[in-house]
Structures are given as C-alpha cells and as structure tokens.
Amino acid sequence: IASPSSADLKLQFAPFSSALEAGFWHQLTQKKLNDYRLDESPKCIKGYYYNGDPVGLPTRLNLEFSAFDVDGPTPARCSPAVGTLYNTNTLDSFKIIDKKALLEKEAREIWDSIQSGAAWKDPSTLCRFILLTFADLKKYHFYYWFCFPALCFPEGIKIVQPPSLLEQIFSAKQIAALQEAYDSLCMKRGTTALPYFLMKYTDDTVEFTGCLSHTRTHSLTMNLLVLLANQWGSKVDTVEVLCFRDRTLQGSRSIQHSIMFQVKLPELPNNSVCPKSVGWEKNKKGAMGPRMVNLSECMDPKRLAASSVDLNLKLMRWRLVPSLDLDKVVSTKCLLLGAGTLGCNVARTLMGWGVRHITFVDNAKISYSNPVRQPLYEFEDCLGGGKSKAMAAVDRLTKIFPGVNAEGYNMSIPMPGHPVNFSQATLSQAQKDVEQLEKLISEHDVVFLLMDTRESRWLPTVIAASKRKLVVNAALGFDTFVVMRHGLKKPPVSQSVSTGADSSPSSPGSSLFSNIPGHKLGCYFCNDVVAPGDSTRDRTLDQQCTVSRPGLAMIAGALAVEMMVSILQHSEGGYAVASSSEDRMNEPPTSLGLVPHQIRGFLSRFDNVLPASLAFDKCTACSPIVLDHYEREGFSFLSKVFNSSHSFLEDLTGLTLLHQETQAAELSCSCCKRGWRS
Amino acid sequence: IASPSSADLKLQFAPFSSALEAGFWHQLTQKKLNDYRLDESPKCIKGYYYNGDPVGLPTRLNLEFSAFDVDGPTPARCSPAVGTLYNTNTLDSFKIIDKKALLEKEAREIWDSIQSGAAWKDPSTLCRFILLTFADLKKYHFYYWFCFPALCFPEGIKIVQPPSLLEQIFSAKQIAALQEAYDSLCMKRGTTALPYFLMKYTDDTVEFTGCLSHTRTHSLTMNLLVLLANQWGSKVDTVEVLCFRDRTLQGSRSIQHSIMFQVKLPELPNNSVCPKSVGWEKNKKGAMGPRMVNLSECMDPKRLAASSVDLNLKLMRWRLVPSLDLDKVVSTKCLLLGAGTLGCNVARTLMGWGVRHITFVDNAKISYSNPVRQPLYEFEDCLGGGKSKAMAAVDRLTKIFPGVNAEGYNMSIPMPGHPVNFSQATLSQAQKDVEQLEKLISEHDVVFLLMDTRESRWLPTVIAASKRKLVVNAALGFDTFVVMRHGLKKPPVSQSVSTGADSSPSSPGSSLFSNIPGHKLGCYFCNDVVAPGDSTRDRTLDQQCTVSRPGLAMIAGALAVEMMVSILQHSEGGYAVASSSEDRMNEPPTSLGLVPHQIRGFLSRFDNVLPASLAFDKCTACSPIVLDHYEREGFSFLSKVFNSSHSFLEDLTGLTLLHQETQAAELSCSCCKRGWRS
Which domains, ranges and CATH numbers included, belong to chain B? Predict the structure, then answer.
C-alpha cells in the first residue's frame, strides 16, 4: 500500500498481486483440452479480491477453478473482477506476444468507459485485468503474466493529507455509523461486499451517496481517481479516499484499520487522449517478466498420469482428426485371449489409445525366453517357475498406468481334439472354463484372439459369433501375419437355422471380393477345409508360432488395435463394408482411413495386402449349423467337439462331403494356420 | 545286485541305473541348438561307470557334459560305455518311437559281435546303451528313457555256488596277488581300470589270462555270460564270476568286498537266432516309462535366460532361414539417439533379435504421458519430476534381460539454429556434447536416429556420414512414418572434396530410382530444400511428433530394426543396392527379403511403399562440401551452424542459389519433416 510520509509526496500504489491457485490451472487444462484446443482468442474470466486480509499481506487478485464460470457466484465478502485470458498455444507465442499492445487495448477500454460515462454507472469496468498464459500440458508447467491496467496521471497524484488509520480520524460513533451504513447497503444489494462507494459523513452520520469508492489503496484506485478527475475535474479539487478494510480480528469485526487520506485531484491533460497506463506484474525476482508454476510435483501423481495420458489422445482431435470419437475407443472393454507376444503388444497399444478396461486370459507361465519378446514381463517374473502370464500382465499394466482397470484369468480354453473326458473332474473343469469364457465374452465389447494355436481360437470364435461380439484376430507366421476382424453376424431374428444363415453361396476357395458388408465376412476358420484339431502334437519347436521375426508381433499387435479403432470409428462398426487393397486410392470410410477385413503382412517384402472374403456356409466355427448346435445344446455339443477328431465337425458342417467331391489342395504355410492363402 | 540264497536259485541281475547330470543336459541343449537342430538321426555318446562306490548304491551309468566327446578321456578308475542317443524333435515322437525295435536293433548288434567273434576280441561292444531323449528347450524340461540291452537265456542262469565276498573265498595272499596283478595289467595298458578280465588263480598266485571279465554283477554280466556260452558252450560247464570292486575305505584301498560266485553256463538255444533281450529302465515310480527332469529351477536363472533368448533366434535357422547369420546381428553395437516412443520400441525389438550392446542418448525426463506409449517406462519413473529417460531405459533393459550390455547418456545433441554461444559455459558444454557424440558414434556399428525433431538429426547425420557408420532413421507423422537407411558413403580415398562426392548429378525433386547402390543413396536431409533450424519454436502441441496414432511407433520401431537386420544379412551390408516396391515380386537379395532404402508407411491405408532416392549434392547434411568443412574445421564449423539461421548451410551448399533459380514448392505434411514426399 501507499506509504507517503510528507505532504509533498506523490501517491504510490501497491500493485495487485496475482494469486493463481492450482484449481485454476487444472480448470485451464480441462478447458484447453476440451474447449479451447488451438483457439487462442481472448477468453473472459473472473477473479476476486478480499479486503479482510491481515496487515502485511499484499492485495491479491485470486483466480481459482471458478474463474471460468464468469456468471457464477463470488466468495462471501469478496469483490469480483472480470478479466481477459490470453492462452497461447506455444511458449514462443507467449514470449513474443505484444504485451504493450494488450495493455493499451485494455487501458483504452477503461478510458473509453470513463469518457462515455459508462464507468460512472458501472465502475466494475475500471477493475479489469489481463492474464497471459501458456500451459505446457506435457510437463504441467504453467507460464503466466498478470496485468492490472492502471491509467496514469503524467504528474502523479499529490497527497494533501497523508494516510491515517480510520480510528485516528473517525470517532467510534462515526465508525459504527459507517459500518451500519455499509452493512445495510450490502443487504439492500443482496451482497456481502461493496467494491466501491461514495459517502458523505458528519460527526454523527455516514451517508452513502453512490456506489463509488474502493476498498484498498491499490492500482484500482488510480483508475477511480482518473474517473473522478474526468467526472469532477472542474468542480472538485481535493478528494478524500477511504480504503475500506473489513477484517475479523480475534473473532470480532474491525473496520478501524481502514485507511483514509486526501489527494489533490489532478487535471487530465487532454480529454480525448487516453492516458498512459502501467500494470504488468513483476515476477518473483522483482523484474518485469512472466512467472512459471510447475504443478507436476504438487498434483496427485495418479490423476496427473490420467490426464497426461488423455492429452496425447485429445491432441489428435484438435487439428488432425476433429471427428475422432475418443470416448468410443476409451470406453471399449477389451478381452485379450492370450497374454503372450501378441497379447502383450496388443495391450500396450490399447493403453496408448487410452483404453481402460483390459482383461487377459492365459494359462501359461512366464518362461525365460519371454521377456525380450513379450513386453509386459521381466526377468524377475520368470523366477521360481514363472508367474502366471495373465496375472503378471495385469500387474504390469497397473505399474504402467495406475488408472487402468485390468483383470487376469489364469485359465485354459478347451479345444477341439483335446479330450476333456478323462474323468469327471476334467469334464467339470472344462465346463467351468466354458462358462467362464462365455461370461467374459458377454461382459466385453471386443474379443482379441491372440493365441499361438489354431484350435484354441475355435471356442471363442463360436461363442463370440453367437453373442454378436466383435472379434479381432491376429496370428503370426515366421515373417508373415494376418490381422482380421471376424464377420459380425446380424442380430438373431428367430431361432431357426435358415434365418441365421447368410443366404449368399460361398466356397472356401474363393479369393478376394469387393464390397462385402460386415455381417457377410468370414471368420478365421472360413477359409479352411479342415476342422481344428490338436495341432501341437506333431509340431517341432520351429513350427510353433513363437518362432517369428521379433518385429512381427509388434507390427501385428499394433495393427490389430489400429484396426479395432478404425472399426469403432465407422458409423456401422463391425457391420462396416470391408475395405480392400483396391480401396486405398478411394475416399476412406472413416476419419482414420480404411476398415479392412484382413491385413496380411509380408515382412520380407515390407508389404501388406487387404483381402476380404465371405463367410463360408460350411465353416467349422461360424456356420449356422455350428452356431445352432452350440446355442441349443451348449456344453454337451462343445464337449463332443473337444473329445472328437476333426471328422465330427467336418461331418456336421458338410465338409466331409465336400472333401469327397473336391480334391482340396492342402496349401503349405510355415504358420500353424493351415490353408492360409496370401 | 543279485542275491540268490540257494543253489536252486537263478541268477538275477541288478540293472544299470542311469545317472544323467545337469552338465549332460546343458551340453545336449547346445548340441541341439547348434549342431543337431532338427536332425533326429542316432548319435554316438559315451558314458562311464565306476566300481568303487560304497555298498548300497546302485550301479550307475554316468552321463555328463563329456558324453558328447566320444574320443575324450574317461575319469580315473572308471570304465567307458559307448551308447546311442536318439534325441527326438517332439514329445510326441519321443512317446511313439518304437522302443522294442530300438532295443532289438542294439541286441542284434551285440549278438552279431558275439557270433562273429568281434566281442571276444573287444568286449566293449557288449557294453552298449541306448538313450532316448526329448529336450523341451522352452521350459528346460528334459524327457529321457535309458536302456541297457541284455541278452537273455530262456531258462535263466543256474547258480552253482552262491555269491560270497572275496575275502571269504580268497586268502589274504590271494587277494594281494589279485590286486597286484590287476594294477600291473592296468599300468601295462596305461589305464586306471579294467572293465573285464579273465583270470586263473592258485593258492598263491593270480594270473590274468585275458581281458575278459567284469566288475559287478550287473546287466553287462548277462552279455558276458552269453559271450562265454557262445565261446565255450561245448567245453565249459561251470564258470566262476568275480565281481571286482575296487574301493577306497577310510583312506585305504580295499578289493576284499568283491563278490565271487559260480554259475552253470547255459546252452544257447540256437546259434543263429538272436536271444531275447531286456533293458529299458524303469522310472522313479518303478514302472516302465520315461523320466523327466526339470532343470529350469536348478540352473542359474541368468544363464537360463540368456540361453532361452538365444533359442528363439536359433530356431529360425533350423528350417526357415538356414543361412541366417545370427552372430552378425547379435554382435552389432547399436546407438539409439532418442529414448522416447521410437527409442523404446527399437530397443525392445533389438532385444528380441538378441542384440546385446545397446546405448541410449536422450536429455529428457520421463513425464506422466510417456509410459503408455514408451514401453520401457512405468508410472513410478515419472514421480519426483521424472527419471532421466536414457538412464531409466538402461535400468529397464537390465530388468528385462540381465545379460544385456546397455548404457545411457543423459545429454543434449546440439542443433542447427539453436545457438550455443550465450556464454563460454554453453559453448564448452556444446563442444563436450559434440565430442561425446563423436566418440559414441565411433564406438558403435549402427546409429538409430529416433528423435522427435528434424534438426536434432543433423549433427549425428553429419558425424555418421563422415565416419561411414550405418544410419537407420525413423520419423513419425500422425498416421504416416518413414524408416530409412542413410546412404553409406564409400571409404574416403583422399582428402579432396571431389573424390568424396558422388559424381552422378541429382536434384532434390527427383522421385524414385531403381538400382541405386548403397553408397549413392540419400540421407534424411537429401530430399529437403530447406536447411534444418529451430522447428520447435512455432509448433503447437499437436504439431509435435509425439501426436501420432499409438500403434505407429511400434510399427515404425519394429520396421527400423527389421530393416537393420536385413541390411546386416546382405553380403554388401550398407552398400547393398536399394530394393524398391517394384522388387517385391523379384528374387529377394537376402534370406530375409528386401533391403529397401526407405519404408514409408500409411496407417490409414495399411500400406507401405519403398521409395529409393539418390544423395543430393547440395544436401545440408551429407553433401561433400558439408562433410569436408566438418572434417577440416570440426567444432568451429559446427558451432557456426548451431549459431546461425538456415541461410548459413543453404549458402554453403548452394541451396540459396537453387532457391533463386527454381521456385521450390513447399510441400505440406503433418510431420515435422518438411518436404516429405509420398
């Protein structure tokens, strides 16, 4: 505050101090991410100040989370101040923005409101501020510079009567009268604080003659004096200023420590020219410059992590893909069958997309060769026989991002050709496993098939087809991979087999088709003319799927998730028509691009092709007759499949007959998936 | 051992017990991985047995690491036994292999050697064994079944004189004479044990009349008796058998506990027909069946991890890519400039390929948004302001695979347009950074450029070009990426500028070329008509390279490493002619496929193209004039580049002139890499 000690002294003003709370920055972050994005245009915000602070504290203009709600309430006994927020997109814009111009613009508006008389009617226009910010949301560093514009009299303001405490000037009676008048005016106005008022006083009474006056000797007073000079310049020479302080000291109210002084109202040089102005706040070193607050350390780290993760995603929408529906992706519940090389990479990519609900199913333990290729495991996880993959994967996701909602199921998936009828115990375990898998598939939106055998994909393919869940399937060869979505059957309209069937005829040997809608697309087994069976029995080590070029699983895992996201962004989801390689030059169906049926990759050629193929009416997994048997007979049908050889499903679907009719050529492939065509 | 108690009893034989030591399995693992691979043909191995064990221990046939060295030494006082190893490729082959046939085959050979008289000359042919194994090298489970073939007399062998300890039959004098005769025969033969001998004895003397006899009443004795019956059948009715035991008891030698008995030598039924045989060992439960030993828990975990990691790699060679030179890959020293999204994924893929020497350079700290996209970091790494990425990446690699040789450098890379001349301190820091980078590039074989700005790639591009190091560069857009190798300049033949230059003229706007040899290929900057400068100054958040589809970095990181491996497998390495998209249908130049110059990927179309382009003689990074200035002036040249704007390099290389002559179209791209053409 001003501390003039002699009559010759000029009035000096203590500038407003900015007090920006963490809540303000948090709210700014949200606004930036969700509303402003790249919009740098000025925004209206609201702060408040309080005249009840103890002696010694600077006059603070507070900005908290409520600052962005300009029409919202002001805290009790505080006065509002409306300001302009300039939030820049880059630190560089923040640095090079023309601060002088911003100040002059604001000062001009104050001056104009004074000139026009608007400020006399509503002096709140005198109390405006500027806040220039740059929010580095990657580091949670917030750069800011605060400005409270104050118009200046060229010669300063001469003090006629130096400041004194009110109790030294007013009698106790006068003080009581002031307090009573203040309170009744507040009540009349329905407020708890008056930012400005005009008053007359006698020895006994205090009368408020207007709303104008102010509460502390801060920069605002300068604008008030300019207003008064402009208003009264010719009529009034000296004004008495009351800096009203409304404190509570040791439980009782006190306005005695308000300050009064008299100044000579200076002449304004020229009515039409805006006076000079000052107002940019000094930084903590006392120099003219911006301040920076680093909130990365004081915010709740887990919340910080959550909002940081969202940031990268939201950034995509700002300019690159404004139509991206992130919620659709983030809220998708993903079931990962297999937590090996593919499962780990799929989970990592899902995390990158902000997917929160991830469930693993695997029955394997982590072995020493896993960590270098399965990016959720470490050496420690292999000790003592190895942790369960499903459980360890959950632990790792939580370590990566504590906000994830991950679950693990250490369980087997029953498979065709792997009998379960050794004993009552094995049979009832298989039944439990089937029920658990059915429950899990029901509870999730997308099922990822990421196992290393062909036959383990059969049961989830059947269940997911029956439950109309989107299936994304990935399988590896040595340097080739397939990533595909299964056809998503239309919702069942009746229980009869014929309506569930795709009426269009198809054959297993058919090659690429165009414009196949999602519900007519094939599944993983549609291209095969042999039912799944125990494929691990006769495989040598190098025929197991884990023998692949190390980069392959990362590529296939990433593509499986990117394919899922593309499907989710399509208005028809899993029913979207399949894009093929020929569509690459056409207008893409989603903002993210194509929605293929299959991506078949060839690492040796660094090439991908996008075949699409129809569902096969004799498919051993998704054909109407298989789904019908499953839906009607449940586990008793499934156990027949588990306990039987290939021929059971082949007889059922009519493949046996087809075999007899056609000489189906066995196509060789290094992958366990037989009959894989490129 | 046999324990007949009456003269009517038949001789019974204690079978050999197999004693397979961890060293044997370890050596089998190595043989399987490096020599046998998928070869299932029978292998000759050597075990040994010892006749000095204390009473109560079974007669063991020991197999240890030395078993595969058939011509190697046998431990002192032990006798060798040669056998046949059948190591199968699958557990299923192990189970279904015809054990009866294996036994009969071996028995027939023994019989034949008896019939032919060969066994009389060299009775070691009587002492043969079979070992059937399956090594599950993923789990370190070893399945085995041991067989010591013994020919049988149909009616058994009648005991004439039941077994007694030698000391009950021989006088002390006779025992001393036997010991002396035994030792002198050993000495004469240059050995420490005699597996078989024939002896005559009187009350005073023991005379060895041949090498035939045996040391314990085990299965081998059966074959010996068949041999004797065949040899002496018509002449001799009863033989006395000495089971020679050569123990050391409480420090002094003792052969007193050898056993003697007499048997009636049975008649052989028919000279020409091989007798029946027995010999498959019972398992620990006493049933006929294989045994399994789980070594995953008792082996040194870190060594286990190391050999497990190698396994997947070696598996590739067995059938898929026999010509793969793994050592070239594994021994490559990789320098990763940037430990962010790309750096983490590149490091993970390198680990998958078994690369052991990985060095990170990064000056950033881990922020909360990193772990979900940068797969070497976790939430914990972000706390307290964040760990250094380079250091944390090293820690993580060590946690994944303790055998890795990783180092981290938390340092900045000076950049064009980022002045370093603020003070003597900043200048000397920059000089230190340059020297450190030069040292690191010298010490490594491949330099990966994985930063998120264009200009940070300039200095390493110049240094690596000058030092003729292979550079693999990866950069991300929102849904596009480029992975490329820089042209590898030919070794300098003189210091003159002209010889270092590629003489063929080229222009920056040129499109794809065919058959460009590696030394004429362009670098990252060759396609650009603007020198690198401070590109971060005016970028909004969404223009920073980290805003990309989450799967993109995994794909690009994986491809960068797979490209490196393909280059390393090419006989000409970095000088290999660049494969292009058109080469996809041709015979690939390496066993792993193509060796492109660039892979440009488009995630929205799930497509990659493989452009190749010539080095540009006005390139701001790899052109002869830039390299010449760098090599002659060193840091003083570099600091000029750091401190200057674009125009310095553009003036130097002649780009400025080119600008004036041609209206170079600025091509827009979402990536920070300007002028990126697809």
Answer: 17-149+275-294 (3.40.140.70), 159-264 (3.40.140.100), 309-661 (3.40.50.720)
